[in-house]
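testing teh design pipeline on a random one, pls ignore if ur not involved
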């Protein structure tokens, strides 16, 4: 059987589980009856789709919405998974193909509308072809008191009894009564493994800072936490080694860790970290999976993580004991270029690349947040909390400014120079610097030349970075560093939309932002 984590990457194209997913996947894989309550958009489907690929036989998915089923079947097929649906929306050919795949025991996921359960034929057929798991989406539809009641959901209990297989039920509705009803009707009153937990880790302080002098920033952060166990995540193996050395030279107990090290060397670091107090491990994301240390007091990212999911997982290693823990994530334009480049140059099909860019945008939205970070983070996972009081932006609200004019000037500089230049040259044009390159290309004759003198060069750098963060401009992978305008910027260029940026991010390009002690 393939490891769930490798399937997560290979089949679904995700680099990390979302909060809650891994535990649920594990329970379902073990064949336990499971009830998972997750907010809408939290990523429930994966919790049955991934186990379905690992388990014997076909997994039957009961879902109330035909459109949703068809969507899921389509994206599973695009990912190379044998999936099908039996709904009233099928053509005869589609239904025929599904039955053939079932008979050949090829099908891994079969979506059916609950109405199908009204005739015993479906149950007969499922017994014949070997069903290994029943997954029930929107399980609250079994509740007679809720407004989504679907009478056919009451037949699911019978289906489970006659197939004698585990059942995994999913819903976003968490109230006590609905849950009790689900347990009664789907699990005959026997308590399933139940997963209901908010995603918040309120004891973890969240903070981001623009990279200025990253080594200095990490050293300062560690110096303020001398003697505490911490992890520094880096984007490359080489950096883990140089940064660990710098920390040692600053008098910390620190070592590096990455996938290129011998297994026993890695093991030594893991054991040391587990047993010693106050060790700092400077690592790539390879570090952490097997680590179960409750008193990690801080996690710093020396480079922007891959996704919000990865970020959440990595900072989540801090403060498992519930005591206060601190985090700091550094990011800068180079991170954005690097991540965009990795997506563009990857082998994924276009749809997935687009989804990956979208996820990167969400992470950059968190990095450049203008209000409480925890709100931005948890909203991404489907929750909607009040401002947290435990993040850098709650501690010190961001100063905002209307960047509409600045963005339009920058876009105009990009367009007038044929989308062929990087931020450095564009900033020279905007601030009216007649450099050799500017003069050689005749860019000192452009109407945009010198129109941005009201901002300093570092301030313009921050504007360009935030434009990249909003996905208004992307570096062209074909032409190193050249910025190209995206459709997202058009409404701003046309004057239909305004833009608000953070002034403190702009200022951060000058003096270093204070790090909370
Ligand atoms: P719901 O809980 O509402 O059923 P979905 O299963 O449709 O949510 O997932 C919501 C979105 O989250 C989908 O776009 C899905 O691709 C994405 N998603 C789910 N799991 C992950 C993950 N581990 N990493 C990144 N994206 C994920
Ligand atoms: Zn906050």
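output:
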């Amino acid at each position: 059987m393939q490891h769930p984590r490798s399937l997560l990457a290979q089949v679904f194209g995700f680099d990390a589980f979302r909060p809650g997913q891994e535990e649920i996947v594990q329970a379902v894989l073990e064949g336990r009856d499971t009830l998972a309550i997750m907010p809408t958009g939290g990523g429930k489907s994966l919790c049955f789709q991934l186990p379905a690929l690992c388990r014997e036989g076909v997994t039957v998915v009961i879902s109330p919405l035909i459109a949703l089923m068809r969507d899921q079947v389509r994206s599973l097929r695009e990912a190379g998974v044998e999936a099908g649906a039996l709904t009233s929306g099928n053509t005869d050919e589609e239904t025929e193909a599904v039955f053939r795949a079932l008979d050949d025991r090829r099908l891994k996921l079969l979506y059916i509308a609950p109405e199908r359960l009204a005739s015993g034929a479906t149950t007969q057929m499922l017994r014949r072809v070997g069903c290994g798991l029943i997954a029930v989406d929107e399980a609250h539809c079994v509740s007679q008191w809720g407004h989504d009641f679907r009478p056919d959901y009451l037949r699911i209990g019978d289906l489970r009894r006659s197939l004698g297989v585990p059942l995994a039920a999913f819903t976003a509705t968490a109230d006590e009564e609905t849950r009790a009803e689900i347990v009664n009707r789907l699990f005959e009153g026997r308590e399933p493994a139940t997963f209901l937990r908010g995603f918040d880790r309120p004891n973890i302080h969240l903070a981001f800072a623009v990279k200025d002098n990253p080594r200095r920033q990490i050293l300062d952060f560690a110096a303020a936490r001398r003697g505490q166990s911490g992890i520094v995540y880096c984007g490359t193996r080489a950096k883990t080694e140089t940064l660990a050395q710098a920390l040692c030279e600053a008098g910390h107990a620190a070592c590096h860790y990455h996938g290129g090290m011998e297994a026993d060397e890695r093991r030594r670091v893991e054991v040391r970290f587990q047993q010693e107090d106050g060790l700092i491990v400077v690592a790539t994301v390879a570090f952490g999976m097997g680590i179960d240390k409750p008193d990690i007091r801080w996690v710093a990212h020396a480079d922007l993580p891959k996704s919000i999911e990865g970020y959440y997982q990595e900072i989540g290693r801090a403060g498992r004991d519930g005591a206060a823990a601190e985090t700091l994530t550094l990011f800068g334009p180079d991170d954005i270029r690097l991540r965009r480049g990795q997506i563009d140059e990857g082998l994924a099909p276009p749809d997935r690349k687009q989804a990956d860019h979208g996820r990167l945008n969400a992470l950059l939205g968190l990095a450049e947040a203008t209000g409480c970070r925890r709100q931005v983070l948890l909203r991404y996972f489907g929750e909607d909390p009040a401002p947290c009081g435990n993040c850098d932006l709650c501690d010190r609200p961001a100063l905002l400014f209307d960047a509409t004019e600045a963005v339009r000037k920058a876009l105009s500089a990009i367009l007038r120079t044929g989308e062929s230049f990087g931020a450095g040259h564009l900033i020279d044009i905007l601030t009216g610097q007649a450099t050799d390159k500017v003069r050689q290309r005749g860019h000192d004759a452009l109407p945009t030349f010198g129109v941005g003198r009201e901002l300093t060069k570092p301030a313009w750098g921050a504007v360009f970075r935030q434009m990249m963060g909003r996905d208004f401009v992307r570096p062209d992978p074909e032409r190193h560093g050249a910025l190209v305008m995206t459709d997202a910027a058009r409404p701003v260029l046309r004057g239909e939309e305004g833009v608000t940026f953070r002034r403190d991010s702009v200022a951060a390009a000058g003096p270093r932002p204070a790090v909370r002690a």
